[in-house]
Structures are given as structure tokens and as C-alpha cells.
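Example for tutorial group B:
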């Protein structure tokens, strides 16, 4: 399946810490996280017009004086067999690449790294790596694949971060500690604040996010295992 892009943010300062990127969104995803905000990309992808690869390349070429690279997100980019060839084109133009993934295809991840097609990967870890994972992902997940992707990244030598969206009931302090223990020795772990309104599932949209004291407790607990633990999003 050729790589389809449905949305392009020409200039983003937010999607790769320290870099200015063009952010590209693929449609479709093999997960159904109830808190997902990009759900129209998998529920109604045909309502978005395709953004042509030539248009993307032209934009990058014309703005290479300040754009460092791309962030490819979605949806789930690893679903596309055309991913590697698209990334190679972008690399050949001299741009850096950040990939966002849910970690469901460790073999593809390994081959992209081996071929030098990604500089940085942000991988979601949705919840404790046990039966609680499936509720947070909205589907039954092959946990062995997720675990393998974690070990691929930790052994890779490229830049990476793991990240968890902290949705009360799906992810509690105990889950953050479980995850941090699992990724012990990782470079960077990001706890993302959850935003209810606009979520894929209504029952999640009304959940009240955790406040700062809970996050402080989570960060402190996770810091015993991981090099750098960060908070992203608005925490009261
Ligand atoms: S992995 Fe989850 S949060 Fe990410 S695009 Fe898919 S459904 Fe949305």
C-alpha cells in the first residue's frame, strides 16, 4: 500500500523537541485508543483530500533554510508498505525524520533503523504491558510485538522516546511505575496530559484529567528507572 498523506502542518515547533519540522499525517490505524484525537483519520479518511508527495517535497525544498525535517504521524505510519521508499526520498533530500508509532511492527521498525531512514522515534506505550493494555488501545494488542519494539529502540543507538497518555482509569500511578520498570535504562519517557473533549469515545471524553500532584508522584516514581521523565500538555 503506497503511503497516503491526508494532512500536512507546514511548520511545527511542537512535534520534535528542538527541531522545526513539517508534520505529515497518514490515515488509518490498527488501534482504537478511546482517547485518540486523530480518530477522523481512521473513521472517515475519505473526507480528507490526499496531500501529494510532490507537493510535500516542493514545500520542503523551498523551505530548507529553516525546516530541519519531517515528523510522520497519524494514524499509524507502519501500516504502509510504501513507508520506506517515501522516507528514503525525504532522506535523500537531506532532511531528518521523526516517526511516531504505536510499536505494533517491530520488524519494520528494525529495518527502518538498519537502513538509516529514521533519526528519532516516538513510541507510545499505552498502559501496563499486561491485560490492561487492550482497554487503553481499544483492540486486542499483540504485546510481544510492543515489547519487541521497545527493545529494538533501546538497542538502536538512534534518538527515541517512549510516551504514555495518562487517562485516569486506563493509566494510574501503578501503571506508570510498571511501564517505567519495563523500560528501565531508557533515555526518555514522556507522560502526556489527556484532553477529554474531542476524544474518540464519549465515555472517555468526560473523564477528569489528573492534577499536578498526581503527575508529580508519577514523575518521581518513574525517574527511579528512566534517564529523563517529562510532562507534556497542560497540567493544573
Ligand atoms: S495508536 Fe491510538 S492514539 Fe495513535 S492514532 Fe492509533 S488510535 Fe489514535
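The residue assignment follows.
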Amino acid at each position: 500500500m503506497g503511503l497516503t498523506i491526508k494532512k500536512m502542518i507546514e511548520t511545527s515547533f511542537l512535534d520534535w523537541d528542538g527541531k522545526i519540522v513539517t508534520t505529515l499525517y497518514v490515515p488509518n490505524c490498527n488501534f482504537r485508543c478511546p482517547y485518540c484525537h486523530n480518530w477522523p483519520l481512521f473513521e472517515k479518511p475519505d473526507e480528507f483530500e490526499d496531500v501529494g508527495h510532490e507537493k510535500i517535497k516542493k514545500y520542503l525544498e523551498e523551505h530548507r533554510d529553516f525546516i530541519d525535517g519531517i515528523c510522520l504521524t497519524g494514524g499509524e505510519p507502519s501500516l504502509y508498505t510504501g513507508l520506506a521508499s517515501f522516507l528514503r526520498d525525504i532522506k535523500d533530500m537531506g532532511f531528518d525524520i521523526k516517526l511516531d508509532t504505536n510499536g505494533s511492527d517491530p520488524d519494520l521498525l528494525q529495518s527502518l533503523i538498519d537502513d538509516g531512514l529514521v533519526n528519532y522515534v516516538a513510541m507510545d506505550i499505552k498502559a501496563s504491558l499486561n491485560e490492561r493494555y487492550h482497554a487503553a488501545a481499544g483492540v486486542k494488542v499483540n504485546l510481544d510485538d510492543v515489547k519487541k519494539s521497545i527493545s529494538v529502540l533501546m538497542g538502536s543507538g538512534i534518538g527515541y522516546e517512549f510516551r504514555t497518555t495518562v487517562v485516569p482509569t486506563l493509566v494510574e500511578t501503578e501503571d506508570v511505575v510498571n511501564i517505567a520498570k519495563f523500560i528501565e535504562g531508557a533515555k526518555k519517557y514522556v507522560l502526556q496530559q489527556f484532553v477529554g473533549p474531542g476524544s474518540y469515545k464519549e465515555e472517555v471524553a468526560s473523564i477528569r484529567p489528573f492534577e499536578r500532584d498526581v503527575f508529580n508522584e508519577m514523575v518521581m516514581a518513574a525517574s527511579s528507572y528512566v534517564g529523563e521523565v517529562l510532562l507534556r500538555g497542560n497540567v493544573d
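The chain has a mean pLDDT of 97. Compare this with the pattern of hydrophobic and polar residues in the output above.
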